[in-house]
Amino acid sequence: MDKILRIDMGADGGPKITETPLGDYAGLGGRAMTTTVVSREVPPLCHPLSAENKLVIAPGLLSGTIAAMSGRLSVGCKSPLTGGIKESNSGGQAAQVLARLGYAAIILEGKPKTDDIYKILIDKNGVKIVIDNSLKMLPNYDLVTKIRSEFGDKIACMSIGPAGEMMMNIASIACTDMELRPTRHAGRGGVGAVMGSKRVKAIVLDDSGMPMRTPKDPVKFKAANKVFTEGLLKHPVTGQALPAYGTNVLTNILNEAGGYPTNNFKEGRFAGAAKISGEAQAELEVKRGGLATHGCHRGCVIRCSGIYNDKDGHFLSKQPEYETVWSHGGHCGIDDLDSIAMLDFLDDNYGVDTIEMGVTIGVAMDAGLAKFGDAEAAINLVKEVGKGSPLGRILGSGAGVTGRVYGVERVPVVKNQAMPAYDPRAVKGIGVTYATSTMGADHTAGYCIATNILKVGGFVDPLKPEGQIELSRNLQIATAAIDSTGMCLFIAFAILDQPETFQALLDLLNSFYGLSLTGDSVVELGKKVLSTERDFNTRAGFTAMHDRLPRYFSTEPVAPHNVTFGVKDEDLDKVFAW
Amino acid sequence: MQITIKLFAMLKNGRFDSAQRECPDNTTIQDILNGLAIPVSEAAIIFVNGRHANPEDDLHHADTVSIFPPIGGG
């Protein structure tokens, strides 16, 4: 991972490939890499779909090694959805393979002058870029089937679906999983639209013949990985609950806590929650011959994913994640897992963010385009997005635009990005993260659910404003650092509770790179990433007023606890005051 | 007094999803856990009427107690 691949898609005579040493970007990985490159090289006032924007794809510092959980990929750019900086994070095989091919980043620059679309092949022999218009408007599953017939099974593929080609604000970039299914997505913020603007349909990665990355101190590295893995396996969340039930185990607990946004954030409890819970989902998956436990990339020991088969036992989609089950489920009043799995498949196939898509449908339901609970109508609305009809184009622009077009007063977005599956009035810590994150409303940016609801890393009462600013600040800092390592964020459950597992993470980094990082170094890294992102957003025109929830969260209480958000504006402005 | 008890994830295995129990006054959550043979370490997250509670807390008529093992997701 000692070089950067730049591809100028707008060069005269066709795409121009340049490989450079890391230079100023040495020592950076994942989010730290994407954020630093975007901040230095992308004019903050540029149009996100213009030639001036860049798409930066970076494996984490530990990706491509034997370290468990190290397969997360960061994709950065100026976001067409938020207008601010974006780091969208994905599982799947891409990060491991890209790292083994030796690249710390791929940077797509410029913009072609024609409508041709391109595929990029990267293997041990180098980089090839070819025009392939036979791929135009192929959905992700069909695309990967075609790519597989050409390049075989020993590849990883990153791709955009029709939504990306149409440069929709909610377009994702799909990454294939271990079975070469396009199921893991850099979903948030419209990164797929930026890839579409560069006219790149697919990036095929083949690491055949490339060795595993070698640590500076292999003995210490191996020992650290053993302690790290044991820590993950012994923690009840990462060792038991996540493998058994997947992320959707959260449905019941958020519902019990009264923080499960229902029918477009009108209530905090959903009558159909048990029917779409992780417990029900896992039972159904096993009954139908699917899998309730499945890893999204090689080296994952938590294996929180699964395989969801239809009633005839045929693959329908990967196990829909909690956020997806919520956005298409409770948020839309839908309590049928088969319909939700179909929506998940359509989202993956067209290449859209499942959170933004589901929230948009709920907003459209509020506008009267369909009735809450009408699963068939929801499926038809997503199909409009795939077709690119005028209605589909509106929905494909996200919840914010859809709300404006249809005159909806209550639209749950921050910085124009849709809120995930936790009501910020009943879980106030996550509300602080939604409001202040550099990414727009994003639960992963500072996952206060851990401490507000799950009692991981201590406990801060979710219904009281006290302590939420500090909690969100600390988690946003820690997350920015973890996102730079290539580690799955779910390691946080174990490292927050078990000091020896956190130390093992430091030991992995130190023994691989010959460093002497401490906990303080990690905090400094996180702060640096966040400060760089805040600076970009400021230069892009963001002010303190953008670090606010929509007003109705402060004026309209949500049942069952009948609470409003209640965190003061002046306190929100202190989140990044360190 | 009447109490509704709800169990989730692994805790419902071999027990139940939801049940109503008649309990004497001054019953605590710990009493409920004891009656169900659930060790405190496995009852990581407890809600009474949707608010976090602790094993030593008293219960009142018509309360709903929801008990979860350590879980996480996101």
Describe this structure in words.
The complex is a heterodimer of chains A (578) and B (74). In chain A, a hairpin with a 2-residue loop joins strand 16 (413-414) and strand 17. Chain A has a six-stranded mixed beta sheet. Chain A contains 23 helices and 17 strands. The radius of gyration of chain A is 22 Å and the shape is globular. Chain A has 578 residues and is α+β, with helices and mostly antiparallel strands. The two termini of chain A are 33 Å apart. Chain B has one domain: Beta-grasp domain (Ubiquitin-like (UB roll)). In chain B, 9% of the residues lie in helices and 30% in strands. Chain B has 74 residues and is mainly β. Classes of the chains: A alpha+beta (578), B mainly beta (74). Chains A and B meet through helix 7 and helix 8 of A and strand 4 of B.
Helix content of chain A: 25-40%
Approximate strand percentage of chain A: 5-15%
For the sheet with most strands of chain A, the description reads: 6 strands, mixed
Helix tally of chain A equals 23
User: Strands across the major sheet of chain A, in which order?
Assistant: 2-1-6-3-4-5
CATH topology group of the domain at 3-205 in chain A: Aldehyde Ferredoxin Oxidoreductase,  A, domain 1
Q: Quick one: how many beta strands of chain A? A: 17
Form type of chain B: globular
Report the end-to-end length of chain A measured between terminal Cα atoms: 33 Å
CATH homologous superfamily heading of chain B: Beta-grasp domain
Task: Classify the secondary structure makeup of chain B into a structural class.
Answer: mainly beta
Shape summary of chain A: globular
Supply the CATH class of the domain at 3-205 in chain A. Answer: Alpha Beta
Known CATH architecture of the domain at 3-205 in chain A: 4-Layer Sandwich
Oligomeric category: heterodimer
- Return the average pLDDT of chain A rounded to an integer: 97
